[in-house]
Amino acid sequence: MLHRSTAATLRPLLQRSSVQPSAASAVRSLATVAPAGTATPVDHGASGSRSHKIVVVGGGSAGMAVSHQLLYSHGFSQDDIAVIDPSEWHHYQPGWTLVGGGLKNKEDLRRPLKSLLDPKLKHYAANVQGFSPDDNLVTLANGDRISYDQLVVVPGIGINFDAIKGLPEALQDPDSLVSSIYGYDTCDKVFATIERFKGGNAIFTQPAGVIKCAGAPQKAMWLALDHWKRAGLYDPADASKSAISIDFATGLPVMFGVPKYSARLEELRKERGVNGLFQHDLVAIEDGNTAVFARPDGAEPLRRKFDLMHVTPKMGPLAFVKESPLADGAGFVDVDQGSTRHKRYDNVWSIGDASSLPTSKTAAAITAETPVLVRNLTQTLAGKEADASYDGYTSCPLLTEYGKVMLAEFKYGGQPKETFGNLFGIDQATPRRAFYHLKKDFFPWVYYKSYVKGAWAGPKGWGVPLKPGSVAGTAGRTFSTAASPSAGSSVPGSRRGFASSSAAARNSPARRPRDPLDHSPNAVRHALPSGETFIVRPPPTSGTVASTTLIPQPLLSAPTPTPAAEAADRDALAALPPALKRNTRKGAKMLTSEQIAEVQQLRQLDPINNTAGRLAKRFGCTPLFIQIVAPAPKVVKEGRLADAKLRELTWGANKRLAKAERDERRKLW
Ligand SMILES: Cc1cc2nc3c(=O)[nH]c(=O)nc-3n(C[C@H](O)[C@H](O)[C@H](O)COP(=O)(O)OP(=O)(O)OC[C@H]3O[C@@H](n4cnc5c(N)ncnc54)[C@H](O)[C@@H]3O)c2cc1C
Prior knowledge:
The structure is a single chain. By secondary structure, the chain is α/β, with parallel strands linked by helices. It has four domains: 4-92 and 99-156 and 318-381, FAD/NAD(P)-binding domain, CATH 3.50.50; 160-316, FAD/NAD(P)-binding domain (3-Layer(bba) Sandwich); 420-505, no CATH class; 593-632. The chain has 20 helices and 24 strands. Strand 6 (128-132) and strand 7 form a beta hairpin. The protein is globular and about 110 Å long. Bound molecules: flavin-adenine dinucleotide. Flavin-adenine dinucleotide is lined by residues 57-63, 84-87, 93-94, 96-97, 127-128, 154-156, 181-182, 212-213, 216, 318, 320, 352-354, 361-364, 366, 397. Flavin-adenine dinucleotide binds at residues 57-63, 84-87, 93-94, 96-97, 127-128, 154-156, 181-182, 212-213, 216, 318, 320, 352-354, 361-364, 366, 397.
C-alpha cells in the first residue's frame, strides 16, 4: 500500500518511466489543472475527447448532489465534469419503505436519470469496470478509458439477494409471502403480502453487517404491525392471543445502533408484544416456509417456521470497487473520515454508500457529506487547503406506526445530533406526527426539487451557497439565511437556515410587473428580513385633498321622512315573514366539583390524548372551561408548538413568504 505522500512522489516518476507514451497518458495530457471557478476551460480537444476536470462515478443520490453542487457553486464549464452511470432510472430509494407501507407508488419515486442531469455535465451511460488511480484513469466496461484531474467515486453498494439461499426464488414466487423493500422490483410486493396475510407467524429480518438505512427493516415491521392492529388481527396489548405473532430477527444485539433511540425502540418492541430474536442472521430459506438463522459463537443455527417474511438482504461493496486499488480491507473506498479524501490518492474522493465513512449509510448523510467534499475538492483545485470536515451526521426517520416517526439524527460515535431537539427543545426519540410528514411528504418532494440539484443541505435546509442564477428555475436565489457557525459539519462559508429568499427571482426584469408605487405617491414599500418586499397602499376610503366624500353633499344627504313614507315602510315590514327566533341554544353544562376533579385527573394521566376538545365533548362543557380548570402541562404545550413549527418546515417558498408578510403587516396595525 502506498501512502498518500509516497504515491504523490512516485506518480510523476511512474509516468516518466514509460518508454512509449501510453494511450492513457496521451489522453491525460489534454486535461489542464485550472483552478475551479476560473474562466480557463478544460481543453477537451476534439469532440468525443474523454478527459475531464472531474469525473464522478455513479449518478445516484451522492453523484447527483456532488456533480450539481460542483457545477452550480463553482462555475465549471461545459463538460468540465463528467458523470458515469449506466442506469436508465434514478430512484428515490428511501421511498421504497413508503411503498412497502402502501403509502406511495413506486413508479412515482423514480425519474429518468438523464432528465436529472444538467446539460453542462457530460454523461457517459456506461459501467465503470476498473480504476487506475496512478494514471488518473477509469476504464469502462467496453474498454474505453476516461481521464480526470479529480475523481469522485460514488457508485453505492450492492444488494446481494443471492447471499441468502432460497431468497431470490421466494421473492420471485407470486404465491409466497416473502418480500423486501430493498429493491425496486420487490418493494411493492411488501404491502400486497401484508394485506393478504390474515394469521400465522410473521418474521422481519435484518442482517448482520452494513446495510443501507439501518432503521428501514424495522420500519417495515412497525407499519405492518399497525396495519394488522387496525384490521383487528393483532392486539399489541395481548399479542399471545392475536391471530398474528411477530418476530424481529436481527443480526445485531440491539434494536438500533445508537443507544438513545435503541432504548426507546426496545420499549416499543416490548409494549407491542414483538418477539426479539437478537444476533440471528438469516442465511437461508428452506422449503419456502422455514427461515434458517446463523448464531454467533458457533451456536447451532435456528430454524423457524414462518407464514410471512420480510427480508432485508445482505449488502456490500461492489466488486469493481472492492477489487480496485481504491478499496480498504472491507472493500469500501478508503477515505479520510473528516475530509472525504482518499487516504492514498490525493485526487480521489468518496462519500455515500460506497465510501468507508464510518457512519450509517443514508441519503441524509450525503446532504452533510456533499458540501464537505465539494469544498475540499475545489479548494484543492485552487491550490488551497482542504479545510472542511465531516462530523458523521446521518439521520434515520423511523416510522413507528402510520402517522408517527421517531427522527433519529446522530453523528460519529453514535452521538445524537438532533436538529429539532436543538431548535425547539423537544426529544426526537418520541415519535411525532410532524416527523411523519417530513418522511412521507416533505423529503420525497425536496429530493427531486432540490437534493438532486445539490441545493438541499438536510438540517441546514437550502443552506448550500450556490451561485446566483445557477440552478435551473431558481435564478437569483441565494439559498441561505441566518448564519449559525455551530451547526453541522464545518464547511467554511456555509450557512444554516430553512428559509430561502426568492426576492431576486420575483423581481427579475423579465417577470417584473409595473411598479404600483410609480402611480401612488402614498404607497409605502416594506422590506421583509428575507429581502422580499410588500406594498401598503392607503385604503380607498381615507380622505385626500382630491376626495369629496367627507364634504357634506346636499344631493346625497338622507331625505327627511314624511308620514306617508313611514306608513309605507310599516306596511312593507308587515309583509315580511316573521322574524327568526332568538338563538335559544342551551349554554354549556356546569360541572360538579367531582367532575372537575375527574377532568383534572384524566388530563394529568394522559395529557396528549385527553385534549380539551375531547374532554369537553365527554363532559358536555366547553373546551375553554377544560383549559381553565385543567390546563395542559407546559411540556405538552411546548410539544404541540414544536409540532406546529415542524409542520412549517414542510411549507413551500410561497407559503413561507405569505406568513412572513402577514407577520410584518400585523406589526403595522
Ligand atoms: C429501502 C431503503 C430505505 C432507505 N431509507 C432511507 C431513509 O429513510 N433515509 C435516508 O436518508 N436514506 C435511506 N436509504 C438509503 C439511501 O437511499 C442511500 O444511502 C443513498 O441512496 C446512497 O446514495 P449513493 O449515491 O451512495 O448510492 P446510490 O443512490 O445507490 O447510487 C449509486 C449509483 O451508482 C451507479 N453505479 C453502480 N455501479 C456502477 C458502475 N459500475 N459504473 C457506474 N455507475 C455505477 C448506480 O447505477 C447508481 O445510480 C434507504 C435505502 C433503501 C434501499
